Amino acid sequence: MAFLQETPRSLRAYLLLVGALGTVGQIYQVVLSSEGGPFTRLLGLIGLVISVAYIWVGISFRSLLSAAPRRIQQLLIAGAAYSILLGVVVGVLSPKAEERGNALAQVSWDCWSLSTYSGTYAAWLAKRRDPTPPRPRRDD
């Protein structure tokens, strides 16, 4: 689809946006919310760390692409694993159907975005590692 063309620049924007929104949400969950016990706060703290890491990777994206490109991939995988874990916990333990539905939607969205952006990222790295050789010049 032409209107959904993923690029390294859009991956950077995604990381910054999701990191900022996630940080705000997790700060509310960990610091400001009085609901939930220690397990909920622990999950919120893990989410806060991942959200801040998304912002860090988004800010230092260009340097990480050349110096440590696997770090970006590892963070995307960690974020998806956290999202799936959170979705399963909420889906199994929540008594409200609305919360279970929201958890399922969130897991679906995170898995889709991970597969989309990791595919773009992998294609971009493949081009970068194995560029097409230059054409030989003809001196006719």
Provide a descriptive summary of the structure in words.
With 140 residues, the chain is mainly α. It has one domain (8-128). Helix content is 80%, strand content 0%. The protein has five helices and no strands. α1 (8-32) runs antiparallel to α2, α3 (61-67) packs across α4 (69-93) and α4 (69-93) packs antiparallel against α5. The chain is elongated and about 75 Å long. The model has no long low-confidence stretch (mean pLDDT 76).
Top keywords for this entry?
0% strand; 140 residues; mainly alpha
Overall helicity: over 70%
Individual helix count: 5
State Rg: 19 Å
* Topology pattern, helix = H, strand = E: HHHHH
Task: Please tell me what the overall shape is.
Answer: elongated
Which sheet architecture does the biggest sheet show? none
How many domains, in number, for the residues?
1
State the end-to-end CA separation.
43 Å
**Average pLDDT figure:** 76
